[in-house]
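[audit] Reproducing an earlier prediction to check determinism. Same input, same settings, fresh worker. If the tokens differ from the archived copy the diff job will pick it up downstream; this log only records the rerun itself.
[audit] input (299 residues):
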Amino acid sequence: MRWGDMRRSENVEDRGGMSGGGGRMPLGGGMKIGGGTLVLLVILGLVFGVNPLQVLGMAGPDVGAPAPAPSMPAPSSSGSGAPAPSDTRKDFSARVIGDTEDVWGALFKAMGSDRYPPTTLTLYRGAVRSGCGNATAAAGPFYCPADSRVYLDTSFFDELSRRFGAPGDFAQAYVIAHEVGHHVQNITGTMQKFDRQSQGLNERQRNALSIRLELQADCYAGVWGYFAQKRNLLEPGDLEEGLRAAAAVGDDTIMKRTQGYVVPDAMNHGTSEQRMRWFKTGLASGDPRACDTFSVAQP
């Protein structure tokens, strides 16, 4: 992906090694949960549907694939002043965020809506304090509707490649674009509607509704990808990287790898097939209106 040609956003905060105000904190104890949104969007793995037992530290570690070569440029040993990996990842993330701002800004204008209010990307290592409470890297990337920020532990890109078997810069961009999709849902009122509809539902029903929310964010990520492709920012193999990432983080694939079997009623992000299909829907259309996962009989 030609991410160096993307505009670099200034809406990035690098908290580096900040511990979130008290070291590595387990999820749950410090979370401020409103309307069930955070439970579904953060604690249960957000983008990647991580096994809840793993997030809570109650499950054993996954057996990951051997780590492939880093997808980000390594620092030069010649003393030429090349950026360190952390600097490169910050630059990459800032440019992807900047490009999502340009795409969604244009889309909001075309749809006759108010100006698109961009999210802020907060980069951290280990643990972080957000408007939704304290979180550790185990939560994965997440969006906090309380402060309208995306949170990303920079080591997650290594996890994406090593644990999820989805290397490549476009796979990493898909992660960010998915979280920006949640921001779009927040500012357009979809999350608020989701919270209202979740009231009084049992766990199985809430999970089914959560799947629709997550698949729409996947579709929104594809909408961004459509315009990246249209502007020749993608390279051969990039689309395959994104689809591989969407497949690798399906609930069924995660469950099979972590526990050996699938529990359909416990899914809250969608199957690999669903996640790929809705990501492809956005990629093919470039139209947010094609991402109405709440109106179809079966998402």
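[audit] rerun output stored. Observation attached for the diff report: The first strand starts at residue 12 and ends at 14.
[audit] end
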